[in-house]
Amino acid sequence: MLFCASVGFADDTVDERYTWDLSEIFPTPEAWDQAREQVLSDLGKIEARRGTLGDSAESLADTLQLISKTSRDAYRVYAYSSLAGDEDLRDTESQERNQLGDIMFARFSQATAWVDPELLGVGKEVINAYQKEEPRLAPFAFQLENTLRNAPHTLGEEAEQTLAYLSQTFGSPNNIYSLVANSDIPWPEITLSNGETDVIDSQGYGRWRGSENRTDRKLVFDTFWTKWSEYRNSVGSILNTHLQTQASLAQARNYDSVLHRELFNDNLPPEVYHTLVDEVNKALPTLHRYFRLRARMLGVEQMHYYDIYPPLVSLDKKFDIETSKEITLKAMQVLGDDWVELQREAINQRWMHVYPQRGKRSGAYMNPIAFDVHPYVLLNHNDDYESLSTFAHEWGHAMHSIYSKQEQPFETAFYSTFIAEIPSTSLELILQDYMTKNAKSVDEKLFYLGFGLESMRGTFFRQTMFAEFELALYEAAERGEALSGERMTEIYGDILKRYHGHDEGVVIIDDLYTNEWMFVPHFYYNMYVYQYATSQTAGTALYEKIRTEGKAGVDNYKNLLRAGGSDYPYQLLKNAGVDMATPGPYRAAVAKMNAIMDEMERLLEERDSGNSRPAD
Ligand SMILES: [Zn+2]
């Protein structure tokens, strides 16, 4: 869930203070290369231990410790080359190192591929007995339990070998799709109302779909979706191949369905997925209320699908990186002095690559894998509010890693995707409330509130809509139904229209736009998108606890961060008082959205009646 800042360059001079210092990982590329060679030679030692896991408790502990140490070193090597590579994607030397890092990591996977099947072969009973005997196995307890859980879904050696041979082809639909979407379709050029011309590919679409000129944004939508619709048969066939492959693989491994497999991976109860979809459907009147408010603020009679992106209010305020730091620290005061001090120290080190530069990777991320060093953060800071919000978001990830390391050893420090986007969301919300409270004018206040609503639409509602569509596709594939591109458009169209209140006249969805599913690469990631919506829900619930319970809520939040990956994500959240299999957290998120709209409507009344007072 990364916000992608658009990239623009004044010149190529870079202020060193705003770049990261990778020499903390390795002083020189030569030192990096030596460490890489060492990892490769340690992989031989791991392979040599094949067949020894069941020999004794001591032998098992030796092997697990060796793997743990090697993976810690491998992460450090990989962190260096991938971070350096992202500074300039055109730099041949650093890209070569990046590839060597990739190869080393692939070798690591190959060298350890025998471990899980062998553990399953040794069996739960023997391993549990070893654990009682050997204290060095304690840090591996969760990892061992999690591996042993997979016994019913692991096949015999011959079948596993066959699947391994075919594993590359299983990923082909995604590769073919990305070639079609990113390089094969000849995107058309349009002329906008100001005379400017632009190619409407996915970047052009992203640039202009929120244009304040309604004729322009309709033209952009019509052009983009007409072009996509010409490829409906082939893209449908590619996606269908992916769905059928995944359905067969799930069946081959004794799962009831692809959904069962994906939830099993994180040990999540199926109620999490179904409760999310049910509750979001019940909340559609709230989404429709937002669309009506949007129509009013944009001044359009009838909302159409091409009216969902233009900003509600524009904000002419700059947030350079120093301002962003200062504001974020003030906002985080609700998390206590210790948090603020810890974060203040971290953000003033050279852990971040802040500004866009030629060749730099776009978007933003936090990378935690140089475990013995510290987290690194990549931004493309653009001095606007979105950049400030992204800054808070990425530092939510970084603080998660810092807190996790306080309590967890390497083995349980890294958390799953289901948990990862929760602290980042909470920090965005804390920032947004702080900005709203401290806004200097009604319009500025409306801007932050509108930003919050838009984030709920784009994450809570839209990602759940995608999740519902994805589930409908898998269910159809698992029933043995034929899925053509046309049929997918039909299924997507029904869901899209329901979510946007097409039949009630809330947002009119022209049939052409029901081809939108073709544009979403996540449908090749196997039930991934729902986690964006659950993360936002849990992040909101945890923030509500901070807001209403004070110190108890803050401690609860920090404890979740400190727990890292020491347990299954559902359990970790439940321990933090947020049960994602029940309606409560989802309803609280919807209530928050309604409260934002209550406040916006009040502010609009005030502004429109002309007696706007200074903000409180
Ligand atoms: Zn994130």
TrEMBL record:
One of its Pfam families is Peptidase_M3
Occurrences of domain Oligopeptidase F N-terminal (ranges)? 118-185
Q: Name one GO molecular function term.
A: metal ion binding
Where the record annotates domain Peptidase M3A/M3B catalytic, the positions are: 211-589
GO BP terms: namely:
peptide metabolic process; proteolysis
Reply yes or no: does the keyword Cytoplasm apply: no
Cofactor(s) recorded for this entry are: Zn(2+)
Which keywords does this chain's UniProt record carry?
Hydrolase, Metal-binding, Metalloprotease, Protease, Zinc
- Write down how the cofactor binds this protein: Binds 1 zinc ion.
> Which EC number applies?
3.4.24.-
* UniProt keyword Chloroplast present: no
What role does it play?
Answer: Has oligopeptidase activity and degrades a variety of small bioactive peptides.
Q: Which family does it belong to?
A: Belongs to the peptidase M3B family.
Against NCBIfam families, the record matches this protein to: pepF (TIGR00181)
The entry's protein name is Oligopeptidase F
